[in-house]
Amino acid sequence: MNNQNNQADLLKELRIDRKSGPPPSRRGPWIAAAVVVALLLAALAAWALFGRDRGIEVRTAQVVATGGGTASASVLDASGYVVARRMATVSAKITGRVREVLIEEGMAVKEGQVMATLDPIDADAQRSLSAAQLAAARTQVGNVQAQLKEAEANARRLESLVQQQLVSRAQYEQAVAERDSLRAQLASTQRNVEVAGDQLRIADIGVDNTVVRAPFDGVVVAKAAQPGEIVSPLSAGGGFTRTGIGTVVDMDSLEIEVDVGEAYIGRVKPKMPVEATLNAYPDWKIPAEVIAIVPTADRGKATVKVRVALKEKDPRIVPDMGVNVSFLEAEPPAGEQAPREARVAADAIVQRDGDDVAFVIDGGDPATVERRTVEPGRAIGDDRQVLSGLSAGETVVLAPPAELEDGSRVRVVQ
Description:
Elements (H helix, E strand, L loop, with lengths): L1 H13 L13 H24 L4 E7 L1 E3 L7 E11 L2 E4 L5 E6 L6 E2 L4 E5 L2 H43 L5 H40 L2 E3 L4 E6 L6 E2 L9 E2 L3 E4 L4 E8 L11 E6 L6 E14 L4 E8 L11 E7 L12 E5 L4 E3 L2 E7 L7 E5 L1 E6 L2 E6 L6 E4 L11 E3 L2
Parallel strand pairs: 1-25, 10-11
Antiparallel strand pairs: 1-24, 2-18, 3-13, 3-17, 4-12, 5-7, 5-10, 6-9, 7-8, 9-12, 13-16, 14-15, 14-17, 15-16, 18-23, 19-20, 20-21, 22-23
Family: Belongs to the membrane fusion protein (MFP) (TC 8.A.1) family.
Protein name: Efflux RND transporter periplasmic adaptor subunit
Keywords: Coiled coil, Membrane, Transmembrane, Transmembrane helix, Transport
């Protein structure tokens, strides 16, 4: 009996009690702590991303050095063309047929060098006629001189006879009249000789006009006529008459003509240094200088012409080449050193409390700004010269917003 009761008790102990929960776990507190820490980190990240002051968004520019160096700052950039101040289309003074052309394009010529000759038949004939007329006039002078000599001797002889009353006074007076007439005739024939001599000289000029010569030293850039063509100093129309033999350019007279807008002509001054760059040779910087500002404006283009002299002579520079020019700041006088200055974008300088100030960005993280009082100079294009307050290489804020103050945090944007 007792054994059966013991077995029943043992069976009861082996039954599973489904009403009671599982035994308590020891990991519960650690899991709760991990959840709390994760929530705190998430909150910190959210604050760092959204709650912290990220600074004022600004745009920046760098301060550039000017003066005291080898290169000057450009005040204005423009484009123009190479032109020759001394260029001539050479033609004959008379109309005639070309006999010989002695030039070719690219040929260097000297002043007075023969470029071409015309058919001289007409000119030679005119000269021969003038020479014959001169010889005839001289012969007539000799004849009149001989007659005058005889008349003068006859008048002197009759004068002594009249005093002796051997001949009548009427006969003597007739001899005197004949003498005076021959004297007048001699003066006329001598004048005719002078006229004939002048005509011969004119005929010589006509012969010389059949030779076309270079008016100055230069280079032939165009050949306009061929042997057998008719040339004339005046255009005869129809396309059959040439008006020139060729075109000669004095390469030493080359300069640059630039059209500068009326709004910027105030930046250009005579004797201002210029740096020229030919479109054909973009790596070649040619020193130049402003010659003059032509005192007239183009109404249609609203521009003013500026003449620029090239300080270097080179065969590569030819007329009508395109060129870009940079008008530079004036160089200091000899023996003086240019002051060390800087320039910066004009909108980086603003008025605060009556002072001209700029905001310089430091290199920290986060970036902050430092307010600087500056002394601005003249305008240089879209930039402004800074005489003091900023140094080359510093970074400044462009168009500083009104809320920007000394020490403000900033965030640089492109």
